[in-house]
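Appendix B, record 7
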Amino acid sequence: MAGIWQGLAGALLLFGSLALAPAATAQKTGQVANGPDFSDITSKAAANRLVREGRLVKIHIFPKELGGPNDPHNFVYIPPAVEEARQLLIGTLRRFTEEDLIDKLDVQAEYKGTSIIPSRIHYTATHSRGGPPFEAVVEVW
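Structure tokens (predicted):
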């Protein structure tokens, strides 16, 4: 199973599926009510400072659990509570993969201003034989 996702991750990177652009509104997961404002975090040094303080964690935006590459472009920073919600979503995506409901995943990050912390992460999972997509949005800040 991991081999399928690794190949898929490479194909998605090749076609720009990790493009950093807004996507359509989808099912919301992990929304942070009255959360922090990361608009002033515009460098990796500032983000890493917040990682050391425990306010952010560094993650693979295309989940490593689903074959996401260990590539510098696949890393982003999010709050620990948001990562917990994202892990629930990844669990659902893994189950859907095991049940052969999905075999493709597209991940898009949405940003505010010049911040390097995504404000939302959009996940769209589909199957090559068709059917409705599974869409989810992890609200970061």
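Remarks on this record: Strands lie at 27-29, 57-60, 75-78, 104-110, 120-126, 134-139. Confidence is low (pLDDT under 50) at residues 1-32.
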